[in-house]
Amino acid sequence: MAFDTSTKVCCNGIVQPRFDINTQCCGTTAFDTSTKVCCMGRVQPWYGFNTLCCGTTSYDSSTKTCCSGNLQPRYGINTQCCGTTSYDTSTKRCCNGVVC
User: Fold this and answer.
1) Which among 69, 100, 53 is positioned nearest to 87, based on CA atoms?
2) Where in the numbering of this chain does the Galaxin-like repeats domain appear (predicted)?
3) Per-residue pLDDT for 83 more than 80?
4) In this structure, how many other beta carbons lie within 10 angstroms of the beta carbon of residue 5?
5) What is the value of pTM for the model shown?
6) How is the chain split into domains, by residue range?
7) CA angle at 90 for the pair 89 and 91, rounded to the nearest 5°
Protein backbone atom coordinates (compact mmCIF):
# COMPACT_ATOMS: atom_id res chain seq x y z
CA MET A 1 0.00 0.00 0.00
CA ALA A 2 1.40 3.39 -0.99
CA PHE A 3 1.27 6.29 1.46
CA ASP A 4 2.90 9.67 2.03
CA THR A 5 5.83 9.06 4.39
CA SER A 6 5.90 12.73 5.38
CA THR A 7 2.52 12.35 7.11
CA LYS A 8 2.24 8.60 7.74
CA VAL A 9 4.33 5.75 9.11
CA CYS A 10 3.89 1.99 8.80
CA CYS A 11 3.88 0.15 12.13
CA ASN A 12 3.98 -3.63 11.62
CA GLY A 13 1.86 -3.38 8.48
CA ILE A 14 -0.60 -0.79 9.84
CA VAL A 15 -0.45 2.76 8.44
CA GLN A 16 -0.51 5.30 11.27
CA PRO A 17 -0.26 9.11 11.45
CA ARG A 18 3.24 10.59 11.73
CA PHE A 19 3.35 13.16 14.55
CA ASP A 20 6.77 14.70 13.89
CA ILE A 21 10.41 13.64 13.82
CA ASN A 22 9.89 11.94 17.21
CA THR A 23 7.39 9.41 15.81
CA GLN A 24 8.17 5.76 16.54
CA CYS A 25 6.22 2.54 16.47
CA CYS A 26 5.09 0.52 19.46
CA GLY A 27 3.67 -2.65 18.01
CA THR A 28 1.08 -1.44 15.49
CA THR A 29 0.67 2.00 17.13
CA ALA A 30 2.60 5.17 16.29
CA PHE A 31 3.52 7.47 19.16
CA ASP A 32 5.43 10.68 19.89
CA THR A 33 8.57 9.88 21.91
CA SER A 34 8.58 13.37 23.45
CA THR A 35 5.37 12.57 25.39
CA LYS A 36 5.06 8.77 25.43
CA VAL A 37 7.14 5.62 25.86
CA CYS A 38 6.65 2.04 24.66
CA CYS A 39 6.52 -0.57 27.43
CA MET A 40 6.37 -4.13 26.09
CA GLY A 41 4.17 -3.14 23.15
CA ARG A 42 1.91 -0.67 25.01
CA VAL A 43 2.10 3.12 24.67
CA GLN A 44 2.38 4.73 28.10
CA PRO A 45 2.95 8.24 29.54
CA TRP A 46 6.50 9.64 29.60
CA TYR A 47 7.48 11.18 32.96
CA GLY A 48 10.71 12.77 31.81
CA PHE A 49 14.21 11.38 31.99
CA ASN A 50 13.36 9.26 35.06
CA THR A 51 10.81 7.22 33.07
CA LEU A 52 11.22 3.45 33.24
CA CYS A 53 8.94 0.54 32.41
CA CYS A 54 7.60 -2.03 34.84
CA GLY A 55 6.10 -4.63 32.56
CA THR A 56 3.59 -2.78 30.38
CA THR A 57 3.35 0.27 32.69
CA SER A 58 5.60 3.33 32.72
CA TYR A 59 6.58 5.07 35.95
CA ASP A 60 8.68 7.86 37.42
CA SER A 61 11.69 6.12 38.94
CA SER A 62 12.33 9.06 41.29
CA THR A 63 9.15 8.21 43.23
CA LYS A 64 8.54 4.51 42.50
CA THR A 65 10.41 1.29 41.91
CA CYS A 66 9.54 -1.97 40.18
CA CYS A 67 9.69 -5.12 42.30
CA SER A 68 9.14 -8.30 40.28
CA GLY A 69 6.70 -6.52 37.96
CA ASN A 70 4.84 -4.60 40.70
CA LEU A 71 5.08 -0.82 41.18
CA GLN A 72 6.03 0.08 44.72
CA PRO A 73 6.95 3.25 46.65
CA ARG A 74 10.56 4.44 46.52
CA TYR A 75 12.24 5.25 49.85
CA GLY A 76 15.20 7.20 48.51
CA ILE A 77 18.64 5.66 48.22
CA ASN A 78 17.77 2.99 50.81
CA THR A 79 15.07 1.38 48.65
CA GLN A 80 15.33 -2.32 47.92
CA CYS A 81 12.91 -5.00 46.82
CA CYS A 82 11.87 -7.94 48.94
CA GLY A 83 9.92 -10.17 46.61
CA THR A 84 7.19 -7.96 45.16
CA THR A 85 7.40 -5.31 47.93
CA SER A 86 9.76 -2.36 48.35
CA TYR A 87 11.22 -1.40 51.71
CA ASP A 88 13.59 1.04 53.38
CA THR A 89 16.81 -0.80 54.24
CA SER A 90 17.60 1.70 57.02
CA THR A 91 14.52 0.63 59.01
CA LYS A 92 13.52 -2.85 57.78
CA ARG A 93 14.98 -6.11 56.52
CA CYS A 94 14.01 -8.76 54.02
CA CYS A 95 13.51 -12.13 55.69
CA ASN A 96 12.96 -15.01 53.25
CA GLY A 97 11.04 -12.79 50.80
CA VAL A 98 9.00 -10.96 53.48
CA VAL A 99 9.70 -7.48 54.88
CA CYS A 100 10.43 -7.76 58.60
Assistant:
1) 100
2) 3-99
3) yes
4) 9
5) 0.86
6) 1-62, 65-100
7) 90
